[in-house]
Design a protein that fits this description.
12 helices, alpha/beta, eleven-stranded mixed beta sheet, single chain, four-stranded antiparallel beta sheet, 459 residues
């Protein structure tokens, strides 16, 4: 039987959602009488686990993130799906591990490919409930017209199509463009003003759509290298330029929260703040901090994939709360769909779970396993509180190639300092088996294998 086209699937999803609501499956029927909630996801680039006041940074000031945390829930074990940009964004918007979507490496300006057209985005599905959908900031899932946000479910787009360092003249890259929908409005981008301009555009999007449900995906370019900041925040942080950049992002968060409050939307808006992956290391002081976690961007140590996370939804999730339950960016996909009363796709594997009951403190996390991929290789697996590494983590030159496995108990050793593999061979065997089963599942069925092969050959 031929697979339905992307457009046909989206149309059917709307009818499937209605059926699921009335049958009582996965949804609370009381939502039928409520106004659909607004959704704001703030997704920053390369911010470390330890780069907020709340997570212990001694010199970076983040009063607005602190306020958001005091009014909502912080998660201490929240994971992105990959330690680099494009795969982590694909996972957020599809609810699927990147190895399923085929987006296993970063897209460059020389690529003519992007997030596969057979993938259904969160914006696609929310539009079936008449949500206004806006993408502000860095996209990085394909810069050709058919892959840009306006072709992937977003009504409005303002931002740059890929990372802010992808302007290598020797490679043939053009200057970094700023786009409004499909039109280039500035080239090269004045990167000093990106955070400020994204904030302005996000506020205007909220104001334009205040009378209907909206989904705002605000994907900041910063603090990806090269670092840029507006004059208002330059030389204002004791942490130097990196601190200036984080404090301007914090200001931006405050502007979004203040706008929601001013417009009377605060109580009906689910707001999330997190990062796409861990901080740079090779940039030394220009990069951030993973705090007590080992590793950094582009590695599968905890510092590469465990991220800062705050969620706020007055009256729906408790204030000033910290949870140690596990969550992932893919859970946000399912959570947002459930809030909107939209059924998740049924023709493909969705790896996320509804995390609202977890944020409310009503349920334990349903995320039982974390798969730590870098490129197309599975480097490590977490099951329960144990994490097993079974190959060298690319880019991490501190790894000593002496043992085939390293095992850590992340509840007592989140810094991954004390290898327990020799002491717990039964755990090593169990997690190895779980990893083999997942690899076999991916090998049996992966409709995006062609993209993986293309990226691995030409990435």
């Amino acid at each position: 039987m031929p697979r339905p086209t992307r457009r046909e699937f989206i149309r059917k999803a709307a009818f499937g959602a209605a059926g699921a609501i009335f049958s009582g499956m996965n949804f609370n029927c009381s939502r039928l009488t409520q106004t659909l909630p607004n959704i704001v996801i703030i997704f920053v680039d390369d911010m470390g686990y330890g780069d907020m006041t709340r997570t212990g940074h001694p010199t970076i000031r983040t009063p607005n993130l602190d306020r958001m945390a005091s009014e909502g829930v912080m998660m201490t074990q929240f994971y992105t799906a990959n330690p680099v940009c494009s795969p982590s964004r694909a996972a957020l918007l599809t609810g699927r591990w990147p190895i399923r979507t085929g987006v296993v490496k970063v897209f460059f300006p020389f690529h003519n490919i992007g997030l596969p057209k057979n993938e259904i985005t969160l914006a696609d599905l929310l539009k079936t409930k008449n949500y206004a959908t806006g993408c502000i900031g860095k996209w990085h899932l394909g810069h050709k017209k058919e892959y840009l946000p306006n072709s992937r479910g977003f009504d409005y787009y303002y931002g740059i199509p890929y990372s802010n360092d992808m302007d290598n003249e020797r490679r043939g890259d053009p200057p970094i463009p700023v786009m409004r929908n499909e039109e280039i409005v500035e080239q090269p981008a004045n990167q000093d003003l990106l955070t400020k301009n994204y904030t302005r555009e996000a506020i205007q999007f909220i104001e334009r759509n205040k009378d209907k449900p909206f989904f705002l995906y605000l994907a900041h370019t910063m603090p990806h290298f090269p670092l840029h900041v507006s004059d208002n925040f330059r030389d204002t942080s004791k942490r130097g330029l990196y601190g200036d950049v984080i404090e301007e992002i914090d200001w931006s968060v405050g502007q979004i929260l203040d706008t929601l409050k001013r417009l009377g939307l605060e109580d009906n808006t689910f707001v999330v703040f997190t990062s796409d992956n861990g901080p740079w290391k090779i940039k030394k002081q220009d990069g951030g901090s993973a705090g007590l976690l080992r590793g950094y961007k582009a590695t599968t140590w905890e510092g590469g994939m465990r991220e800062p996370f705050i969620a706020k939804f007055p009256g729906r999730i408790p204030a000033n709360t910290v949870t140690t339950e596990i969550g992932t960016t893919m859970d946000l996909f399912v959570t947002c769909l459930n809030l909107a009363g939209v059924a998740p796709p049924v023709d493909r594997t969705i790896d996320g779970h509804d995390m609202l009951p977890v944020l409310q403190g009503k349920e334990k996390s349903h995320t039982e396993k974390i798969f730590y991929y870098y490129n197309d290789k599975l480097n490590a697996i977490r099951v329960g509180h144990y994490k097993l590494h079974f190959r060298k983590s690319p880019g991490d030159y501190s790894w000593q190639d002496c043992d085939p496995y390293e095992l850590y108990d992340l509840l007592t050793d989140p810094s991954e300092k004390y290898d327990l593999a020799a002491e717990k061979p039964e755990i090593v065997k169990q997690l190895s088996r779980e990893a083999d089963e997942f690899r076999a599942e991916i090998e049996r069925k992966n409709e995006n294998r062609d993209l993986i092969e293309t990226l691995m050959k030409n990435g």
